[in-house]
Amino acid sequence: MLRRKLLTTLLALLPLSGACAQIGSKGTIFTAQALSAAPESKTEKSAIVMGLIPAENNQEMAQKFEPMRAYLEQKLGRPVKVFTATDYAGVIEAMRKDRADIAWFGPLSYVLAEQEAGAEAFAVGVRKNGQSTYRSLFVVPGDSTIKSLKDLKGKTVAFVDPASTSGSLIPTYMIKKATGQLPQEFFGKLTYAGSHDAGELAVKNKTVDAAADNDITYEKMLSKGLITKESNRILFYSDPIPGSPLVYRKDLDETTKQKIREAILNAHKDIKVTGYGDIIRYDAVTPNDYQKIRNIITDLGLKREQMLK
């Protein structure tokens, strides 16, 4: 309840695009609530549904994946619909209830979806720098006196979502390594912004003393002029993190999984691929590529309830 109140307060100061909108001629963004009313049974030509975690605002996320949605629809010969949820747990729940066939998750939310819904990672975006990995970071206002992670003691800090990798899991790990304490013990107040860009804007507006983000959203917001290096100063970078995967339900029929996988992995040969960040192609991954995330969860002793609040 406290987290919801804090999130409501923060987002009231930082208005973002709504959760529902039309994209393209066939793709629709659905809220998780609207999606829950969809029929469970699927025929060969019924729609394939893809869920996106709200790493950034919902409309922007759906727009980024629209070219891939349209391409996948063409290759599969059946409708492909996209939905975003108000939080990471909403996409996990949709897949658990067989309301989502494909999803784009962060590494942590993927591991949770693997446990909760039998999700199986099959592809990851490769950025223009040739890497599929990315990094978590802490940002502070440019004129802040904070110089190290230890200086965050007693401060108000915004994470993204309990199920976010770069916006919660890795920052928690960094704080624990640096201070021996968990963030909720070390900070004066821990809030959840709901998305990476909302956290950056909270720092810019000095609503919080610091925020967790990643190098993908940070660079995007710099390029768009939404923040500057003077307004949002990087305090600390993490080590590289396995990239955010595309996954499908493990119990999806093998023919459909193969078609989806081949279409995604070969899309760069036919179109300019898109996704979270500047993506040039998608490479194959397996569940084993995310063992590092499972190990961190174990090291921190995190429980399911703490990550799916």
Write the layout of secondary structure elements.
Elements (H helix, E strand, L loop, with lengths): L1 H12 L7 E2 L5 E3 L1 H4 L12 E5 L5 H19 L3 E5 L3 H9 L5 E3 L2 H11 L1 E9 L8 E6 L14 E4 L5 H15 L3 H4 L2 E4 L3 H9 L5 E5 H9 L8 E6 L7 E5 L4 H13 L12 E6 L6 H10 L3 H4 L2
Parallel strand pairs: 2-4, 3-4, 3-5, 8-9, 8-10
Antiparallel strand pairs: 1-2, 5-12, 6-12, 6-13, 7-10, 7-11
Verbal overview:
The protein has helices spanning 2-13, 32-35, 58-76, 88-96, 107-117, 165-179, 183-186, 196-204, 215-223, 254-266, 291-300, 304-307, and strands at 21-22, 28-30, 48-52, 80-84, 102-104, 119-127, 136-141, 156-159, 189-192, 210-214, 232-237, 245-249, 279-284. The strands form two sheets. An eight-stranded mixed β-sheet has the order 1-2-4-3-5-12-6-13, with helices on both faces. With 309 residues, it is of the alpha/beta class. The protein folds into two domains: 15-130 and 244-291, 3-Layer(aba) Sandwich (D-Maltodextrin-Binding Protein, domain 2); 136-237, D-Maltodextrin-Binding Protein, domain 2 (3-Layer(aba) Sandwich), CATH 3.40.190.
